[in-house]
Amino acid sequence: MFEQFVNGIFWNFALIVFFAGISWRIIAVLRRGKPKDLSVPRNSGISGAIMANIRGFYPRKEIAPRIRMQVIAGYMFHLCLFVLLFFAAPHVTFIAEYITGFSWMPIPYWAFVVASEITFAGLVLLWIHRVLNPVTRLISRRGDHIASILVFIVMLTGCMALAQTSTELRVFHRFTVELLMIYFPFSALMHAIMFVPSRAYTGAWFGRRGVKV
Amino acid sequence: MSTLLERGVDKLKTQIDARVEAYFSSCTHCGVCAEACLFYTETGDPRYTPIYKAEPLRKVWQQEFTLLGKLSNSLGLNSITENDLSDWEELVYDGCSMCGRCSMVCPVGIDIAYLIRKVKEGMAAAGFVPDDLQSAGQRALEFGSPMGLTAKSLRTTIAVLEQENAIKIPLDVEGADYLCMLSSNEVVLYSEFITAISKIFSAAGVSWTLSSKYFEATNTGVQIGDSQIAAQLLERLVEVASELKIKTVISPECGHAYTTFRWDAPNILGRALPFNVVHIMELLDQLRSEGRLKTTGSFDERLSYHDPCNISRRGGVVQQPRHLLNQVAPNFVEMQDSMEMNWCCGGGGGVSANERAEPLRLQVFNVKKRQLDELNVTTLVTSCSNCRIMLEDGLEDNDMDVSVIGITELIADHLA
Q: DSSP strand E in B231-347: where?
């Protein structure tokens, strides 16, 4: 019964909320509009937007020593999560079956274990930093903590499902993923998509002024 | 909702555009921006975290433009209050120099200075502006200058300079190629700037003038965050430049004047300007590259250059002052963090005009002190008169034996 619910109606509901929610958030940005910049540009805004999107992936040397922990933990978490999401064997099978219709080479089991451990470590470090650092403690909102906890639960149930190979655990993992999908468009998790226009707007602004980003 | 709050919220609502929506939608509250802000690094107070200063705007965005926020607001939860605005006045006007260093380091690319500028619009509409800035704004509207200087003050200064230096300073010359604006600082404190440009332009054969009708480069409306005042002051510039049939307006050694004239004015006025705008550094470097600005001798003391934030990071004029310095200063050394990642003097964005902020401003000057201590220079050069005052103030407060000069003055002293 629960398995049918998770694999059927709730999956469809989560998919609709996920894609409709993301589309709605993107449309909200576009709908809001932006007044045309009437100043005479010094350089191209488009190249600035592209450069800013690339430049944003690595920290500036001027502040890197002050944010070492966030950078290392951030990379650990995001890179390994990406690997797990798209290269863990069960995910490759699932994506091929339900989305793409074709599959690719998954990572071996030992790599899955290593990637999971690094992802967990990164997430926990970032969350501890969020709670203990006076700055992040002040500026964090309830949603930031909910997002961290949800991602943690999804990863935990995922690891449990893989290790136990039990249908119940796999279904429970899928259920937590669906909860995450429903929460995603309404939360700070949207940064996974919104960082692109955000960097582009700022990069274009600097680019027009001839400032190296 | 009180009238003040209603005015503030209404104004903040009008400030939310696609950029703001994308920025707030992508912020993960990582706190990296704090590490780039001198108000945080030098005080350790997390309230000075740049993105936290944009909190009033974020609250309005959330309660008016997001599904969960609208729901919370309808239940009376997490709504913005008048206290929010009054509490944020100190953070926005005393604890932010709008230097934009935070905008360079945000991992998701948020231009936080852009957000804070918009917060100021809401604060101004609600009347939460420091008294000193409000008075400066009134004087600017009444006299044309935040210091209350008039055409008579300018004429007196010009007469003294002409007599002392045996030079001719053109005033109200119709059809001149360039109109040079001045900040009040350059009329009252650093009039050597006027002497310097007169000598340089005379030697380079530049057709230029000052205007007695409206000479003020400082735009207090921008510092307050009141676009209406900003627009009124800019209209005076457009009127004077049009009357004198000016092709190009020169922004003097003043950081925010440059970004206001060059980048913000068309957007504040809603139309393209009928003239070009150049910063004095751009023009001097152009004259140098054309061979019209020739120098002789050198300034041999060990010196460094303080990048004014609005000229380098927010204005894009980075290499020009360095070209000029390399021509006359063989012992020019760069600070460790310079150019687009310079540290602010602490007095931008109207902080310098806000006496209440002085103790905080002098505290955050520590970062500049450390930079200078590392370099062991005897002279500091800059291209913004406001930075110059802040630097002199900070150096004096720290008993540091470093003199501060403007580049234009340095170049004029070495004219061939």
A: 248-251, 276-279, 303-306, 332-333
Does A165 share its domain with A110? no
Whether the ipTM is more than 0.85: the answer is: yes
Residues B264-318 have pLDDT tens digits of 999 999 999 999 999 999 999 999 999 999 999 999 999 999 999 999 999 999 9
CA B78/CA B66 separation, integer angstroms = 13
Q: Is B105 helix (H, G, I), strand (E, B) or coil?
A: helix
Partner-chain residue, chosen from B21, B40, B262, that has the shortest CB–CB distance to A29:
B21
Which residue in chain A has the smallest CA separation from B315?
A: A209
Q: Which residue is closest to B318 within chain A, CA to CA?
A: A211
Overall number of domains in chain A: 2
Here the tokens at position B184 are: 């009040």
Tell me: the pLDDT tens digits for B98-148? 999 999 999 999 999 999 999 999 999 999 999 999 999 999 999 999 999
Give the domain extent around A45: 41-125
Asked if B291 and A185 touch (Cβ cutoff 8 Å), the reply is no
pLDDT tens-place string over residues B22-43: 999 999 999 999 999 999 999 9
Domains, chain B, in order of start with CATH, read 3-128 (1.10.1060), 132-288 (no CATH), 290-412 (3.40.50)
